[in-house]
Structures are given as structure tokens and as C-alpha cells.
Amino acid sequence: MNPLHSTAATNEHPVVVTRVAERQWHALDDDQVVGRGHTSPRPDGRVFLSIDAWHGAVFDRLADAMLTDLPRPLHTVVDEADLDQRSGWERIGFTVRRREREYLVPTDPELTGLHAVRPPSGVTVVPLGEAEDGPLRALDRAVRTEVGATVGWETMPAEVVPLPRGVTVLDPSRYAVAARGDRYVGLVRLAPVPRQPRIGLIAVRADQQRHGIARALLAEVLGSLHRSGVAAASAEVDASNKAATALFEGLGSRLAGGNLELVCR
Q: What positions does the domain N-acetyltransferase occupy (predicted)?
């Protein structure tokens, strides 16, 4: 890649910012790497930036180089409690676009109140790892189409692992589903995060909502985790999603923190 030279003082040496790959930038001080930047395109089209730099001046120069090279809008995610990191991004023109709340969800059915929950009449919950691949992928495509036509996938959690183009179900064993007859109508995806599982997605077909399917799916997944010795799972919820917030808070979940998605247009 052609280098993009930009200077900032750290001690007596100028800093040179170089684009070393399509999605990577390095800041060099006397041939030593003093900062790194990279981009992560998401399946919904959003491009997220990440910068790792010890000095504010290096951060600013990396950000300037990346903003010069890349089309807008651009996004990033910061811990809501990290005021220094947030101010760094806001200093270069990023503003808050949305907030995510992170909950710790107990798995004990006596604590969640899910011990007596049963699927609605005519609905069967298929446990984790037992869903049929074809119907699961068809449900995933249908849910994505419905979300895209209503609230939009940009309202989904920002921390989404990039997947190969066209792939949305990477590991079917991480899903539990709800079936009405031979049709899958709802799903929960459990992300394999180290040390603590995360509820990565819970979704029910639009014509099947408000019948208790989501609670039945959570009862199955959380109960399974409890039986395997896991005390809690994490979940990220858009702060503006009142229905999802009410669902998780109604399970006795504890607010553990939050993230901010910032955007530069």
C-alpha cells in the first residue's frame, strides 16, 4: 500500500502514519510502531474503526489518516464508562448514535421466574444444537428480512462478528428454535464468549410475537446453562428497545455496563 505521511511530535521524533494494508494503518516513531488502526466492515454495511495508541497526538494522527482515506459514515464502539476514549473520538468529529445496555442474566429458573414457563399451545422448543439446518437458515433469512424492513439491522448490537459474504448462520449448534408444526418461528443464538456465554440474538417471526415464544426460548436456553453449572449469561440490548429491556429486567437481570456506538458522517 502507498504510505500516507502525517506527523505529530512524540519526544523529538516525527510520527509517520502509513497504510500498511487495505484495513490497517501503523503510526511509526523512529521506525517503532507507536499506534495501530484498523477497520472492520460489518454484514449490514457499517464500517467500524479501532485505534490503539498510547498518546493522544498519535491517536489524532491515525484517525486523521483513516478519515481521509475512508468514505463516510464511519462508526466505532466505546465503553460508556471510558470517558477518555469517548472524548478522543468526539474530538475528531464522532457523535453518539446509540446506546447498548449490557445485562447479566441469571440462569437459575427460580431467580428468573421461568421455572413454570411452557411454550404456547402448538409450539415446541427445539434445544440447543438440535435444530435442522435448512429450516434454521430459512428462519434466519426471514427474520433478517423482517428486521431490515422495520427497525433495521443497524439497531442490532454493534459487536457482531464479521462473517463471510452471504453467511449468517455460522454454527447451527449455537441455536435453539421454536417450531409451530413444521415451521420454525423463533430462535435464540448463544454466542461462545470465553468465561461467560452471551445471548447474541433472540428473535420471533412478526406474526408469532406477543404469545410468549421468546420467554419459552429463554427458559430452555437459560435452564440448559443452569444445569451445566453456568450461573449467568450476558446480553446486550439497545437502550431504546423498551420491549427487550422489559423482558430482560423482568428476568432479574443486573445492569453490568454499556457501550456507545459513535458515528462520523
A: 123-265
